[in-house]
Amino acid sequence: MLLNVFLECILGCLLKIKKFLEYFLQIVGIFEKQANPNGVEDNVEALEQCDQAHEEEHMPYVPSELVGCPGNDSETLYHCYLIALQPDFSCDTKPHDILLARRARLEFDDETLTFELDVDRGKLKIRMNYIRQIKLTSEEVVLCQKFQVTLLRLLLDHNQKKLKEALSGLNRNSQRDVFDYLLIPSTGPHENPSIDWTCVSSVLFPQENMSDKHMDGCSNRVQGRYVHTIDGLICCCTLQNSLVVTPHDGIIYCTTGILDDLNSNSLLKRKSRGSITYKANFAKWHGITLCFEGEPFLSGQCLFTVQNYLLGCRNEKPKGSRKASVELPPELCKVMMSPISIGSVSSFAYAPSIIQRIESLLIAGNLKRMLMDDCKLNDMIPTIKVLEAITTENCQENFNLKLLATLGDSFLKYAASQQLFKRHQNHDIGPLTVDRINIISNKALCKLGCHKKIPVERCKRKSRQGGEMQSRLLRNFR
Predict the structure, then answer these.
(1) Largest Cα–Cα distance of the chain, in whole Å?
(2) 112-122 as b/e, with b when 16 or more CB fall inside 10 Å?
(3) Any bridge partners for residue 85, and if so which?
(4) Domain range for residue 434?
(5) Helix (H, G, I), strand (E, B), or coil: what is residue 476?
(6) Would you say 210 and 232 are in contact if contact means Cβ atoms under 8 Å apart?
(7) In the predicted model, is pLDDT for residue 35 greater than 50?
(8) Which residues form the RNase III domain (predicted)?
(9) What DSSP assignment string belongs to 291-344?
(10) pLDDT value at position 357?
């Protein structure tokens, strides 16, 4: 029974492959008349020319489900998905869940989409499932877009100038197609998540009257516990979960708390160099004089660096390697976003890789539906297998088309041989075999792909370090 199912599925695939090869069968005579005198060298040269033509003529494909033109409606209905992040390793700070909001519902094989990312300390399990529809006002949409662009641009570039350029481009995209989805921090249980509007509103900082701004549950509202920053006097409750930058070196930090027992007069212990006060250390190495000696320091760590966590060849960090905690004098800090926890920041550091996998699965699903209408068992072929079939080794992921190459070659040889022997029944096997080799050669397949405007590869070689993937995520805001 299982064998019959498998054979029926293969026959369905062969029907499409047979149609796909009709273009070649029309030019069999050309291949017969124009033999390849230079053998392998000419074939390689033709492939290079074809690859160059492909680079010039074909833009990277983005699934239409994630692209759209923003509207001007006062309210917009969004389909909401919960992206749950579950580390398969022990960690001090668990990444928070993310909500993906899209105006049209996405189409996947299953209601729940699961995959893994290869992060520095192990596997990060991603689970995405549909939640419900939500309505957002135009003001809420703009706020979510600003939050998304601000946080992702900071994570990708660590550059305030590029952030300003990206934010200035938000209004310019209202009349053209852009990546039309929202990535929003989530709060609440998995069964009934909601938008974390407190975190989203962190992008509005600084606000007027910052000295009067407090977090819920702050015990300092009456007596006040303020510290000096570049922005002015701010309550400690606002600083303990925020993104700050130290303008003297341009480094961005995630703050995690207040160090009550540490200030500028505390001793900084240095390996084999004795001890020195923080105040003296800043004066010696940075030429900065700390003025507010009694104010507690902030605890934090450097902003995360976004990587391509889909790669299967990433260099693992040495055991015990973690983000080092730093002590920051508040008077040297300029607040960029507040309040935002390090858990929310870390989850958005994984967002480019998550969106890349969602994009690739949507592309594979579209290709599956486009090419396999003749297969009665279409639903039995997992989309992940289609994705594997269009993923080259250059992508350097944990799977690629190499394992399916032998089966694919067999399909091509079968279909081409059947048509050639049917059309030229009186010809000898030798010449027909040569014709078949020419028809299914890499040179011919590449030419057909370019002629039919089919992308030759899903990934470019630039994806080794994830740079291509990262830049694509927000290129519409430039």
Answers:
(1) 101
(2) ebebbbbbeee
(3) 126
(4) 10-57+369-477
(5) helix
(6) yes
(7) no
(8) 388-449
(9) --TTSPEEEEEEPP----TTBSSPPPPPTT--PPPEEE-GGG-EEEE-S--HHH
(10) 93
Q: Does a structural domain hold residue 254?
A: yes
Determine the Cα–Cα distance for residues 146 and 170; give it in Å rounded to an integer. Answer: 8
Say whether both 88 and 179 belong to one domain. yes
Is 288 in the same domain as 314? yes
Q: Is residue 440 part of a domain?
A: yes
The CATH number for 299's domain is 2.170.260.10
- In this structure, which amino acid lies at residue 250? G
**Hey, what amino acid is at 440?**
I
If we measure between CA atoms, which residue out of 411, 404, 390 comes closest to residue 459? 390
Amino acid of residue 327: E
My answer on whether 198 and 226 are in the same domain is no
CA 367 to CA 170: how far, in whole Å?
Answer: 32
Using the structure block, give the residue that is written with the tokens 């869940």. Answer: 97
202-238: pLDDT as tens digits: 999 876 555 556 655 565 543 457 899 998 888 888 8
pTM above 0.90, yes or no: no
Tokens of 223: 């007596």
Distances (CA, A) of 318 to 121, 310, 315, 337, 383: 9, 19, 9, 32, 35
